[in-house]
Specification:
heterodimer; A: alpha+beta; CBS-domain; three-stranded mixed sheet; two-stranded antiparallel sheet; 17% strand; globular; B: 296 residues; alpha/beta; flat
Chain lengths: 154, 296
Amino acid sequence: MIAREVMDTRFHCLQPEDTIETAVRRFKTSSDAEGKKIFGMMVTDSDGRLVGMLSMHDILLFIQPKHVEIWGEIEDVDPEPIFEGLLARVRNIRVADIMTTELVTIKPDTHLLVIVDLMIKRHIRRVPVVEGEAVVGIVYRSDLFYHLLRRFVA
Amino acid sequence: MPIVEQRSVLTGLQVKEAMRRDVQRMAADRSLAACIRRMVKFKGNALLVDAPAAGAPIGVVSRTDLMGAYYAGLPLETLVADILAGPPRFCFPDDGLEDALDLMRQEGIHRLYVRGAGPAEIVGVIAFADIVGLLYRFCRFCSQSRRKAKTPDGALARLRVGEVMSPLGAACGPGDPIETVVETLSAHRFGAVLVAGARGEPLGVVSKTDLMVAYLHGEPTAAAAERVMTSPVAVCSTQALLSEAIQQMLLTDVQRLFVTGAEAPAVVGVLSLSDAARFRSGTCRACVTSRLMTGE
């Protein structure tokens, strides 16, 4: 019952200097390539070292308007063009600007129940697996869930 | 002698009705780069800074402080402790909104942190823009405002941007260096400066957030303003209704609109949320006139 058994070794990464537009496109292409929804990706530098994680949550947080309650109340204005204007502010923003840098990582031999504990306590859905300085995989909560509870779906 | 007490739409409202509960905090021993990233990510105008060991707030770092660090050429590894301003100003959740506004006015600041039971317990933050947003929402649902808008002369009672705006103090050219933009912002106490073309037409805006991002990306202060400006510029006409302008600012998260006159596209003025707030809700004059009450 260790990380190596459930970690996904086919993962897609972003670069810190990528734009948010590139990141969104990469989320889509990676999801299509893997045949499953990818909600977060690792960010690695030019030497392949893990420097952060960027999730859909981070991007949604950034594009969310400050006065969101007013958006819920307006009826007399077409919100689409205004929202398009809000999206324009991602133009100068790079992945490194909004990625999460306080990371939780595990090793390939970390016990699965320790990973469960980490995910519950830290409210995380995916954990990078690191060996030395190299990223060797990623454990998704859904993979962990179905692996641990596979007897109920057999 | 009777005392006339003027009541406003804010009377009776408490800080907790307008405050935000997600307070962004950072330890004083973190770097300016980390500080900027946090502010960009959460679109904050300031961070509450905690003492590294005690975890109690000791100061505030604002976009203005970071702009100053950029101008001074401080490295991004500089500690937040080296540039913070302090101590932070506090209020309590059950304080009146008018009292909170008075305190902001006296101190010349735009936000107060809301303290809980203990000195280190911070339960929220209240910013000037949040109060304007709350006012705007009240105004939209105000029966007086709606009734006036429906009367034949309703349009006369509603304020227009041209009556409220301030003249455009200064602007920069697209080729001006970033350091000139910073000097203009500081000299005029602007939140953002217009980048205008030769005929005064708006080309872009450089805000303090744009400068923070430029600082983070290592843009030299000698670089041209057009490299960091945001475009298109959020504009409105002098004839636009003030209520619509406030709505535009609140929906698009900008704190000012540049105002074009009859000879568009030249910019003739600027409307800030502060200008709008001087006229309270801005939708009509009902709030002030209908709430004048006489007491003992």
